[in-house]
Amino acid sequence: MTRKLVIKEVLASLVSMLWFSVLLFPFMVMKVNVASGVAQIRFRWAAMPVIAIAAFVLSFLWRRALIWNEHRGDKLSTSSPFALARAFIQKALSKKPVRRTSLLVLLALVAVYPYALGMYHTNIMITALIYVILALGLNIVVGLGGLLNLGYAAFFAFGAYTYGLLWKYAGPAFVSAGINTGWIFWIALPLAGIIAVIFGILLSLPVLRLRGDYLAIITLAFGEIVRMVLQNSSAVTGGATGISLIPRPWLFNLRLPPRQAATYIYYIVLILVIFTIFVVRRIEDSRVGRALEAMREDEIACEAMGIDLVRNKLATFALGAFWAGIAGVVLAAQTTYINPDSFTLWESIMVLMAIVIGGTGSIPGAIGGALILKLLPEYFRPLAQYRMLIYGIAMIIIIIFKPDGLIPRNRKKYTFVEKVAQDGKAEVQA
Amino acid sequence: MSDVAAPILDIHNLSMVFGGLRAIDDVSIHIKSGEICALIGPNGAGKTTIFNCITGVYKPTKGSIAIEHGERGSERIEGLKPNIINKKGLARTFQNIRLFSNMTVLENVMIGRHNSLKAGIFKAIMRDRATREEEQRVIDESHDILKKMRLDMFINETARNLPYGAQRRLEIARALATDPFLLLLDEPVAGMNPQETKELEETINLIRDREKVTILLIEHDMSLVMNVSERIYVLDYGRLIAEGTPTDIKGNPEVIKAYLGE
Fold it and tell me: Looking at chain A, which residue has its C-alpha nearest residue B106?
């Protein structure tokens, strides 16, 4: 860094220092004291240098980081320890036995998780895994289809309420018929998926022609409408008080005590996560997934290539909604209590944030993002009041320094080994 | 392709009005099977609007566009949706390149093959034998198309990272992948250097001769237009002002007036 540049940076930082001093003066230095009945202003001058120095240092560091970010592509980053580690991992994972073993180890770890860490951590993990399913589902809509859906929590609510209402209205019949109520969960699970898909298609009909901002606003409104309807139709849904005492799933005819039930739900949600990953991966790497991505990239070109946009959009919303419905049932089963407050706009934004942080369109990214967003706040409870602040800063940093997300999508590579056969067919390894 | 002189696309008295602007005014164009036909005219003459009407982006205000099937009669296509028109065998490229820029080159071409495949969502999840074979087939076919367009060295490259000329060729490759009988090229050599233009000229000829695809192209590069096309339509302010062979057009006073002014 040349001297000239340093001076320029220092000057710029001094300007931000001044600016922040002025900006924060009323908040940090002035304090209005009304205790005595007369408003008195107390000046805490001691705060002034703290603000100034902090603003200067942070501004300088931030500017340095921006410059570094601009130029980091200039030299090949093969020598940094981070890049080396990543190359090593990628190389190791490209070998099938290594990939298999690490997958098995990972599976073993998640399988013993509830026994190793107890009920508290198991419950936290269940919530996080529910979010993983949600993130994977929304990733189809936003990451593959490129349709910004801000009403995703509505489908989550459909799932939860399917189970809740089924319990509320069909539960007594189950009890009087002598069938144990734990079975309702297993009926609700596929049913919720189907109901969410139906509502997904219904929502997609009015928004077929919309894109970008307009689509985001309509879906946002849809999410709020669903929540309002749930809240105000108290005769059917219980209104703001919601539905309580929803049964946890039973292990065959055995009603499990809460601790074991948590472990049981953990395994159920784990299997659902694996199932989701399996399905979503296959969709992504197929004719359907490619068409969705083409739609994200360019709708006009996509249509000119013979792809039916209407069908594509219906499929996108339906596929995304399905997973939210399933996740909703698990949520209802875990918490045994649901009310409309669990399905606010904030939930939709959280899931969207998980995708953006992890890497839009990337399956490992969606998983990682959901785990980070759900697990970290649980383990940093003391910082809970700064949660929004931290999320905001994290989003800005990610968008500037890692716009593709933490684990960006690795596109499938095809290698053609030309055979000199008479038919000239190429051999392909995926 | 036995009957070379038979028209395959019939545009009859086509008009397109945007508010008070008559973008196309009573234009009739007949494309014959197996020919390379050019549509030229000054900027804003309505060339791309005609393309957009043919491919279903716009619904024309008046007139008809029909695919001629010879003895089996003709089929009106104006006002149909772009994907339906593509299925009927008309494929296009775009003036401002519209690739699927974050997808790989091979995937771009595979999208073009979309309608030659059948697998739906459930088949994709099951991934049965038929689906796997179909997937393999589309990979091979797309690879072949890329080889023909001399793009096979870029297969796994993200489309937006391609050099400009290669992006233009990829657009043509993607359009060819939809198995068209008529290819509409919107300024295929815009922004290319003379060397690239020369190469693309050969490619256009090859597509017509080997793939038996009829070509309608819009182009401002007169050397390419004169070299490659057999017939030329000249458009000015939405009106057709001339039609004929390259030599006819070169000497036509109307055309010279439109391009150079009085």
Answer: A414
A361 → chain B, closest CA residue: B102
What single letter denotes the amino acid at residue B13? N
pLDDT by residue (tens digit) across A326-367? 999 999 999 999 999 999 999 999 999 999 999 999 999 999
Contact across the interface for B114 and A414, Cβ inside 8 Å:
no
B82 — contact with chain A (CB < 8 Å)? yes
The dihedral built from the CA positions of residue A268, A271, A277 and A283, taken in this order, carries a sign that is negative
Q: Which domain holds residue A169?
A: 110-401
- In this prediction the ipTM stands at 0.90
- pLDDT band of residue B1 (cuts 50, 70, 90) is very low
* Of A189, A90, A144, A136, residue with least CA distance to A355: A136
Q: Quick one: pLDDT at residue A423?
A: 45
Which structural domain, as residue segments, surrounds residue B143? 96-179
* Residues B139 and B108 reside in one and the same domain: yes
pTM of the shown model: 0.89
Number of domains in chain B: 2
Q: Is B241 on the interface with A (CB under 8 A)?
A: no
Residue A423 lies in a domain: no
Mean pLDDT in residue range A234-263: 86
- A63 lies in the same domain as A120: no
Task: State whether B84 and B6 are in the same domain.
Answer: yes
Q: Cβ(A292)–Cβ(B120) under 8 Å?
A: no
Pairing of strands B90-92, B231-236: unpaired
* Mean per-residue pLDDT, A176-190: 88
User: CA A429 to CA A416: how far, in whole Å?
Assistant: 7
Domain shared by B125 and B164, yes or no: yes
Q: Render pLDDT for A26-46 as a digit per residue (tens, 0 to 9).
A: 888 888 888 777 888 888 888
Shortest alpha-carbon distance between residue A292 and chain B (Å): 10
